[in-house]
């Protein structure tokens, strides 16, 4: 690890460039405060490595400072300074430690927290019981002191703005508005007094944003008065390049200028330059935006007069400097493209070796020209460096893109740097190479995962195209021929004394692509029409089944409850679709995708219909083995039937119920053609040979078992048990239904010269009107689809039963008339009761059913 | 309280105006409580146009009045003035008076004349009042002077008009509300004019001319603060005319009118100082300090109740300089110093300690940095130390001196060259120069004085050895200062070089003399008479006025048996008339009163003895 700089990203606070300098501060012990120049302040716990609180302010946050007792946090934003107790920030975390991993506490700053209603405060500083704010009014800087207990304004100082520099700054490279710096400087004679009891109180006051300077330098810079009163001194680093100071005691009249950098002041800090001395900072460091570095330190026994003097060492580093921080001996600064370290002891020691002033500055400049790169780019804000137990220096940085990074500097750096000259540079190079390697490997893995995602997306796109092509261009393509399709089997099952119709959907992937993780089979079930009792709510039910990997040729089977007995009305439409969620693939990035679309892609697969025929429970013919095996079933069935009959008879009486019926006639030629065709390619069970003998039987068989529209009626052993051309069954509501298929020869009545046409008549009989209607509808639909697949036959078209057609038309007209009549009478409400009207309508309906037309 | 009903949005059709774009949109912020837009577009028909409706014009002028009051309240005088003149110009054009005078007073005269006795006259007079307020606020007292008669007649007329119209106005439906009652405005303007003029004349030295105006003003109806100002200024005039007792009377009246008029207190203190009434001066200082320490609520209270606070109208430099009061800290310092210098040492010590405590406390309430600055802190410390020593609290004095020494010692130069100052350069300038340029000599002198005080303390405690050590330290420090005459090499300064009192050089020599004298006296106590004699003689060389050194030198000579010399020495010392300017020097530079004393009657007896023996 020697010489390498480990960068660890702790969190991301995505933000694009803001108008103000971002700010990173330690506070409340180990917490880190972040203000990115927007309305939020983030509180990040560096121990738990997570965001603990977000403070929402009414305007862009410019600065924040915590009180010395860590009980309050002062936040400056456009409309004023807000003061919030720390308990608001930690309350949620404390109340539910188990819940600590959940979302951070959110606090909205409202006017009740407003402490100082001064507008446009750019910087804040808390010194003892005095809160200082720095703001800009037109052409001057205003430094105002408030009492922190009741926010009473104590004093205010103004300083004219040096405008020229500011103008050049606004049009400068960064485009960012520099925030002025407010720093409190203490004399270390005050900060480290000999008596222990006073240390504690003073340590409390010396906190973040407070510097401690060696007493001599403090006196030299800020005068003996401030030293005598043990007063802290406020240091302002202004964007116009001025470094001003103001001692708090005795009351000063104005801000005095310490030095002018002639470029926006980016950083002011204090550093211990010489190893000697008991740990006080002996050097004040100021860094300008364009790279000017000024070191101010005391110098003993200069040229003439003797005594201590303050000396200024000025130099330049490669700009622009975005931010900086300083530890005991080194200055860290970021140019935006790299993070650099400057050894301040080197800079100042080279000065010590030489006497002449001219030489000095040039030597210092030379030392400033050789900073060490840490190979960390895009850092825009730095918190104060900390040293962990292992002696590693940790920096906390904020990158341009809002990443909170911990940068650990190598321990061995100092030792490695000791041998100067060539060896050092090789070591540096090696370490730099190491850094680059590490970063490269990180990038490699990132690229790898991105590639993975891209490949995945490619698959998704292929599948999407495949399915979209099916829906868009070739509408007629039957679902059986789609590369990815869904078929279903409806079957009755009995669970907990209840019959229910289950639908088993099978997703068949016959495409060359793999359906990978992220795909979900979504099935929506909705009835074609609602039963009258269900009211208006469209009872659509959605099921989704995520699956992991579906290789080409594999199937995926899911089962879902369709309806319980006596509940749902048929037919039911089942629409299957494949859904792909981008969130699963891209994670949170999916939310940031451009466009208003949701992050899900939904591709319709097929729409299936489960009709009455599917839902029929066929009664096994008596005498087969089924009766013995499922005695209990039948017994309960009988009880159910008995109960049902009792219930009904209580109303009207079963005996009164008439049998309704409807029939459909199909030409047997058509049937034999289509069914044989189907049988040959579908049925490999040997029954295909026997089928031609009895067209009616095979029709029934087809009706009850085949899968028009992809749904098969799954009846365990039922299809074998069709005893004859009569099928008895129960509809879902438990009514008995009889399906009869018989061959009828129809004579062409008009001419009579032709031979009779052989047809098959399928008759539906039931006591339930609904069952008859439903089954009739189902029959017609099936035959309709059959006709679509039937081979074209020129001959059959000639046999149009013209007479029959005419009669049918006349009948239809008469019926229409009848309907109109009843509607008119219904509308006027004359003479006819509602019961009568219903009867008449029923009659019309039945007549309509009894269509003698033949389907050829 | 102003409500927004005062400013309805007033809009007018100006289809036939020459300047149809003359629509003014003003945004007014009043104390953040509300803001409103005024859309005032003024119709002024062309000479041949439709005759104006007087009511409309009145509404317009009222809107202008209200807008201007708000502008003035926000110190936007030029905007307000522009608005005023434009409105009046239009009015004149409407009347057919095309000629507009460029001179403002002439302009207003014509305006008043042309309007005559119409209903609009009152409105124009209102506007004139505002013009007056602007002149006052921008200190154009000359203009007011030239126009004063008209203005006062305006006041008369307005007073009449206001009284007449007050009854029907309340009944009529279209009430034109004003943000500020014109009667109150006039009262305010009147007294403020008198005050401003008085202050101006006073600062020009024409006190006798200022007095009558101020005295008439004091009987006008006005806020207490302003009445107090008139009394105060009258007092200043009288003080200037060297009638201190009458001035004091005026100041007392000012205080009676407004107890918070600290300036009156301060001025009375100055008069007592001038009269040499030290006790009264100290009393006044004490009162002044306690008044200054009260929380200042006067300004804010006034500002809250008035839209146009008097402070807005009284902005002249001369008045503010007359009203200037030093800060509480510097008042406390003068109080402490006065007490110490006038035999109230224990009280003075308490004040010094209060002062130091205030300086050290974080909470510096009521401490304003304006006014005369405090002396540098080491100076204060040394003064306090000297006071403590006078109060026989030697240990405390030593602690204070220690603080000064430890703070400044690191900054002391190895060698200082004091250059001869050209004669014409005044003392203050030198001081300023010192403060800027590191203050190295000053620092050295402070540390020296601190050592000297410590020596005095040890002398007081009769710890002669320590006393000698500290006096020596002081002396060693002082010899680092070299004096450089123009064109000569730097050298150790001698007595004949001392020019003015109070310069660094004078202090240096005094310190040298005192430290040598102190060491000499201490050595005398330990019977090191030769060394003592050397020191005392050197001390007399460096600082001839030092009586202690002279007397003790005689004593040592006496003890050494050199009686004649001793007598000569004593007589010389007594004959030496002390310079009157000792008072101007710092307390700590004065000769200690706490050391071992010589009984003068005993000395006189010895002289007589010697005289008799000689004669015998």
TrEMBL record, chain B:
Q: Name one GO biological process term.
A: interstrand cross-link repair
Supply the InterPro entries for this chain.
FANCG (IPR039684), TPR-like_helical_dom_sf (IPR011990), TPR_rpt (IPR019734)
Q: Which GO terms describe its cellular component?
A: Fanconi anaemia nuclear complex
Top-level taxon in the UniProt lineage: Eukaryota
Q: Which SMART domains match?
A: TPR
Gene3D superfamilies reported for this sequence: Tetratricopeptide repeat domain
The name this protein carries in UniProt is FA complementation group G
Please tell me the species this chain comes from: Cyclopterus lumpus (Lumpsucker)
């Amino acid at each position: 690890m020697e010489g390498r700089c480990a960068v660890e990203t702790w969190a991301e606070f995505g933000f694009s460039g803001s108008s103000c300098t971002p700010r990173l501060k330690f506070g409340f012990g180990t917490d880190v405060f972040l203000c990115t120049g927007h309305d939020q302040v983030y509180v990040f716990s560096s121990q738990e490595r997570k965001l603990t609180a977000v403070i929402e302010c009414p305007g862009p946050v410019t600065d924040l400072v915590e009180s010395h007792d860590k009980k309050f946090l002062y936040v400056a934003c456009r409309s004023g300074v807000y003061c919030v107790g720390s308990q608001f920030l930690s309350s949620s975390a404390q109340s539910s430690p188990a819940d600590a991993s959940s979302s951070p506490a959110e606090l909205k700053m409202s006017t009740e927290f407003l402490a100082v209603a001064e507008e446009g405060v750019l910087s804040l500083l808390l010194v003892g019981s005095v809160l200082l704010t720095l703001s800009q009014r037109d052409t001057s800087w205003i430094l105002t002191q408030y009492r922190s207990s009741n926010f009473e304004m104590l004093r205010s100082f103004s300083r004219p703005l040096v405008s020229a520099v500011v103008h050049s700054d606004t049009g400068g490279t960064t485009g960012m508005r520099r925030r002025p710096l407010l720093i409190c400087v203490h004399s270390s004679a005050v900060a480290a007094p000999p008596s222990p009891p006073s240390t504690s109180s003073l340590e409390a006051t010396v906190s973040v944003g407070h510097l401690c300077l060696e007493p001599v330098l403090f006196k030299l810079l800020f005068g003996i008065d401030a030293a005598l009163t043990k007063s802290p001194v406020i240091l302002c680093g202004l964007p116009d390049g001025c470094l001003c100071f103001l001692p708090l005691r005795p009351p000063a009249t104005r801000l005095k200028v310490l030095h002018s950098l002639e470029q926006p002041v980016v950083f002011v800090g204090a550093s211990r330059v010489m190893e000697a001395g008991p740990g006080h900072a002996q050097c004040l460091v100021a860094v300008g935006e364009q790279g000017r570095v000024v070191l101010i330190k005391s110098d003993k026994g200069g040229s003439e007069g003797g005594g201590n003097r303050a000396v200024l060492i000025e130099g330049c580093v490669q700009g622009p400097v975005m931010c900086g921080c300083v530890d005991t001996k080194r200055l860290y600064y970021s140019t935006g493209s790299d993070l650099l370290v400057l050894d301040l002891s080197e800079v100042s020691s080279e000065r010590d070796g030489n006497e002449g002033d001219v030489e000095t500055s040039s030597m210092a400049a030379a030392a400033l020209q050789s900073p060490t790169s840490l190979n960390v780019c895009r850092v825009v804000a730095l918190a104060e460096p900390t040293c962990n137990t292992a002696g590693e220096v940790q920096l906390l940085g904020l990158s341009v893109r809002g990443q909170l990074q911990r940068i650990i500097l190598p321990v061995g750096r100092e030792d490695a740097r000791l041998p100067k000259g060539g060896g050092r540079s090789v070591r540096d190079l090696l370490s730099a190479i190491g850094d680059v390697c590490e970063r490269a490997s990180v990038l490699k893995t990132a690229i790898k995962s991105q590639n993975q995602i891209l490949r995945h997306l490619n698959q998704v796109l292929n599948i999407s195209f495949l399915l979209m092509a099916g829906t868009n261009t070739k509408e007629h393509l039957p679902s059986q021929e789609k590369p990815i399709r869904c078929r279903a089997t409806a079957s009755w099952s009995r669970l907990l004394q209840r019959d229910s119709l289950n639908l088993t959907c099978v997703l068949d992937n016959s495409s060359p692509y793999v359906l990978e993780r992220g795909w979900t089979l979504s099935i929506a079930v909705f009835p074609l029409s609602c039963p009258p009792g269900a009211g208006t709510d469209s009872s659509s039910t959605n099921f989704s089944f995520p699956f992991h990997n579906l290789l080409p040729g594999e199937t995926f089977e899911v089962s879902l409850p369709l309806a319980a007995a006596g509940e749902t009305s048929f037919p039911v439409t089942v629409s299957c679709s494949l859904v792909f969620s981008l969130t699963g693939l891209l994670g949170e990035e999916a939310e940031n995708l451009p466009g208003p679309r949701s992050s899900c892609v939904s591709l319709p697969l097929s729409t299936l219909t489960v009709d009455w025929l599917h839902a029929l429970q066929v009664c096994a013919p008596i005498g087969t083995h089924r009766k013995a095996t499922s005695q209990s079933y039948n017994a309960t069935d009988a009880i159910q039937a008995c109960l049902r009959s009792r219930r009904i008879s209580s109303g009207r009486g079963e005996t009164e119920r008439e049998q309704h019926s409807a029939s459909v006639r199909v030409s047997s030629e058509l049937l034999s053609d289509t069914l044989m065709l189907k049988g040959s390619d579908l049925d490999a069970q040997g029954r295909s040979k026997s089928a031609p003998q009895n067209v009616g039987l095979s029709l029934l068989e087809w009706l009850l078992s085949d899968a028009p529209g992809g749904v098969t009626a799954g009846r365990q052993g039922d299809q074998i048990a069709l005893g004859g051309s009569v099928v008895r069954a129960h509809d879902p509501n438990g009514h008995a239904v009889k399906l009869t298929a018989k061959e009828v020869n129809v004579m062409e009545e008009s001419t009579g010269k032709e031979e009779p046409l052989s047809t098959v008549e399928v008759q539906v009989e039931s006591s339930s009107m609904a069952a008859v209607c439903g089954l009739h509808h189902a029959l017609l639909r099936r035959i309709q689809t059959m006709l679509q697949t039937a081979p074209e036959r020129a001959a059959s078209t000639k046999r149009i039963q013209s007479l029959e057609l005419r009669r049918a038309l006349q009948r239809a007209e008469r019926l229409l008339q009848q309907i109109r009549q009843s509607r008119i009478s219904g509308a006027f409400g004359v003479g006819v009761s509602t019961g009568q009207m219903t009867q008449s309508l029923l009659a019309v309906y039945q007549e309509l059913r009894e269509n003698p037309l033949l389907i050829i | 309280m102003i409500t927004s009903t005062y400013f309805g949005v007033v809009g007018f059709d100006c289809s036939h105006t020459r300047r149809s774009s003359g629509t003014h949109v003003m945004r007014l912020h009043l104390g953040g409580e509300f803001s409103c837009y005024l859309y005032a577009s003024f119709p002024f028909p062309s000479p041949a146009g439709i005759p104006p409706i007087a009511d409309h014009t009145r509404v317009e002028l009222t809107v202008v009045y209200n807008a201007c009051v708000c502008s003035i309240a926000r110190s936007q005088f030029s905007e307000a003035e522009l608005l005023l003149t434009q409105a009046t110009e239009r009015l004149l054009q409407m009347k057919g008076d095309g000629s507009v005078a460029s001179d403002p007073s002439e302009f207003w005269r014509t305006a008043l004349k042309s309007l005559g006795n119409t209903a609009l006259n009152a409105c124009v007079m209102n506007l004139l009042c505002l013009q007056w307020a602007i002149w006052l606020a921008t200190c154009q007292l000359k203009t007011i002077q030239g126009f004063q008669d008209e203005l006062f007649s305006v006041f008369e007329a307005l007073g009449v008009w206001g009284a007449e119209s007050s009854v029907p106005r309340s009944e009529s439906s279209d009430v034109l509300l004003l943000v500020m009652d014109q009667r109150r405005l006039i009262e305010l303007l009147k007294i403020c004019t008198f005050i401003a003029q008085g202050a101006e004349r006073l600062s020009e030295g024409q006190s006798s001319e200022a007095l009558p105006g101020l005295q008439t003003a004091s009987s006008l109806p006005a806020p207490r603060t302003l009445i107090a100002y008139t009394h105060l200024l009258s007092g200043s005039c009288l003080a200037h005319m060297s009638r201190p007792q009458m001035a004091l009377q005026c100041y007392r009246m000012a205080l009676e009118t407004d107890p918070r008029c600290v300036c009156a207190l301060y001025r009375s203190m100055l008069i007592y100082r001038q009269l040499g009434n030290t006790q009264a001066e100290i009393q006044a200082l004490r009162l002044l300090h306690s008044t200054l320490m009260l929380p200042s609520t006067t300004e804010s209270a006034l500002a809250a109740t008035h839209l146009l606070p008097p402070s807005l109208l009284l902005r002249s430099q001369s008045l503010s300089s007359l009203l200037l009061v030093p800060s509480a800290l510097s008042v406390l310092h003068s109080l402490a110093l006065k007490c110490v210098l006038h035999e109230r040492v224990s009280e003075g010590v308490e004040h010094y300690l209060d002062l130091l405590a205030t300086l050290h406390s974080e909470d510096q309430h009521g401490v304003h940095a304006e006014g005369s600055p405090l002396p540098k802190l080491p100076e204060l410390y040394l003064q306090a130390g000297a006071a403590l020593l006078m109060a026989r609290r030697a240990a405390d004095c030593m602690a204070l001196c220690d603080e000064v020494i430890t703070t400044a010692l690191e900054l002391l130069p190895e060698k200082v060259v004091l250059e001869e100052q050209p004669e014409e350069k005044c003392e203050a300038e030198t001081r300023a120069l010192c403060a800027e340029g590191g203050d190295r000599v000053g620092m050295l002198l402070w540390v020296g004085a601190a050592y000297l005080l410590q020596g005095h303390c040890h002398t007081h405690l009769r710890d002669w050895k320590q006393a000698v050590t500290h006096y020596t330290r002081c002396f060693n420090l002082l010899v680092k200062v070299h004096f450089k005459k123009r064109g000569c090499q730097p050298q150790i300064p001698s007595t004949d070089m001392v020019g003015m009192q109070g310069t660094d050089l004078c202090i240096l020599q005094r310190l040298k003399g005192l430290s040598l004298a102190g060491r000499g006296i201490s050595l005398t106590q330990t019977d090191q008479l030769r060394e003592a004699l050397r020191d005392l003689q050197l001390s007399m060389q460096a600082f001839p006025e030092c009586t202690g050194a002279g007397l003790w030198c005689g004593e040592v000579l006496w003890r050494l048996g050199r009686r004649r010399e001793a007598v000569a020495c004593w007589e010389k010392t007594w004959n030496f008339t002390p310079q009157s300017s000792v008072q101007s020097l710092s307390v700590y530079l004065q000769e200690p009163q706490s050391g071992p004393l010589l009984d003068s009657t005993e000395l006189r007896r010895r002289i007589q003895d010697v005289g008799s023996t000689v004669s015998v």
